[in-house]
Amino acid sequence: HCWFKEESMPKRILIVDDEPRYLRLLEANLKTEGYTVVTAADGEEALTKAASLHPDVILLDIVLPKKNGFQVCRQLKTAPDTKDIKVVLVSSKSQDTDRFWGLRQGADEYLTKPYRMEELVELVGRYA
């Protein structure tokens, strides 16, 4: 058994986006808040890292290479070992139909870009 308390472990966030500048910005902001941050640049990498690392929260872009965010979310939420990971879809797609479809895939939240960093940090804090 581990000698440390579970609460003392930094919460792990997986950020999935194919835009490197955006990944670095988010990573820096969330590390400042005390989170452990892992990144992925496409849908397949996201699935691999989610399965092996079991992050507390996944910030998942929708428009991604290899598998889009909707597909990744659906796969995560239907697999027994990843279904409990909180998934926040983050996208510039701001139509109600996009939000509806994202939540239908099992996403816990849907956040549209652009957003305020405080908004994102508060959202992550709610789940992590």
Radius of gyration: 14 Å
Helix content: 40-55%
The largest beta-sheet arranges its strands as: 2-1-3-4-5
- Count of discrete alpha- or pi-helical segments spanning 4 or more residues: 5
Share of β-strand residues:
15-25%
- Class by alpha and beta content: alpha/beta
In the predicted model, the low-confidence regions spanning at least 5 consecutive residues are: 1-6
| Topology, number of strands | 5
The N- and C-terminal alpha carbons lie at a distance of: 22 Å
Largest β sheet strand count, sense and barrel closure:
5 strands, parallel
**H/E series:** EHEHEHEHEH
Task: Let me know the average pLDDT.
Answer: 91
Summarize the structure in words:
The protein has 128 residues and is α/β, with parallel strands linked by helices. It has helices spanning 20-32, 43-53, 69-78, 96-104, 117-127, and strands spanning 12-16, 36-40, 57-61, 86-91, 109-112. A five-stranded parallel sheet has the order 2-1-3-4-5, sandwiched between helices. Strand 4 (86-91), helix 4 (96-104) and strand 5 form a beta-alpha-beta unit. Helix 2 packs parallel to helix 3.
Topology at a glance:
Elements: E1 12-16, H1 20-32, E2 36-40, H2 43-53, E3 57-61, H3 69-78, E4 86-91, H4 96-104, E5 109-112, H5 117-127
Parallel strand pairs: 1-2, 1-3, 3-4, 4-5
Quick tags:
globular; 42% helix; 128 residues; 5-stranded parallel sheet; alpha/beta; disordered N terminus
